[in-house]
Amino acid sequence: MADPAPDHARQAAPGPHLTPEERAAWIEAGRLLFAQECGFVHATQTLAHLPPPGLPELAFAGRSNVGKSSLVNALTGRRALARTSGQPGRTRQLNFFELGGRAVLVDMPGYGYAEAAKQVKQDWQGLMFDYLRGRPTLRRVMLLLDARIEIKESDGAVMDLLDRAAVTYQLVLTKTDAVKLPALARKLAEVEALARRHPAAHMEVLATSSDTGAGMPELRATLAELVPA
Known about the structure:
Largest sheet: 7 strands, mixed
Order of helices and strands: HHEEHEEHEHEHEH
Strand order of the largest sheet: 1-3-4-2-5-6-7
Structural class: alpha/beta
Strand content: 15-25%
CATH superfamily: P-loop containing nucleotide triphosphate hydrolases
Oligomer: single chain
Helix content: 25-40%
CATH class: Alpha Beta
């Protein structure tokens, strides 16, 4: 299971606090990790068919059509690694991708298509919650939020579930290229305040765009910190 310690979750990533030389090395570590070969290795809709725990796992979660698959593709530089779809709620299983023999990326099913926290509980209190709560190799969940729209009730419901599971998670804004800078600054402040209200949430919020690549070097570097060299 991921480290539940609130102090660990509250530590900001070192990127903004490094010297230029240290920051360059930090970014390079992320680039090198995600330059490794990455390929699909497993998919399951049942807890019984989860692959055996092994490499550190980095999971990606978010509402349907928030851009999880696009983000995974952009991180790895592979356009079709994770399948994208314009049909909300299509992905209904856990998809595992091995990254260079060093880590496993986990693309989780989208939630919230029914626009109700009740639907989140039905979808996520089974396989999803059991995976999150009991997976010893899970290092962090990256919880994606669409920068263009308001925080949904379903997002809060999933954050509550992650808090209950004592899983460290980090909020990541997607599609920031579609938001003007003043609005993006307000959205970042809103989401940072939201993170502070949740005990398992990491303090730093990352802003990204799969289309332009904005924020991707920082996201890669943040994830690389969670993987042994």
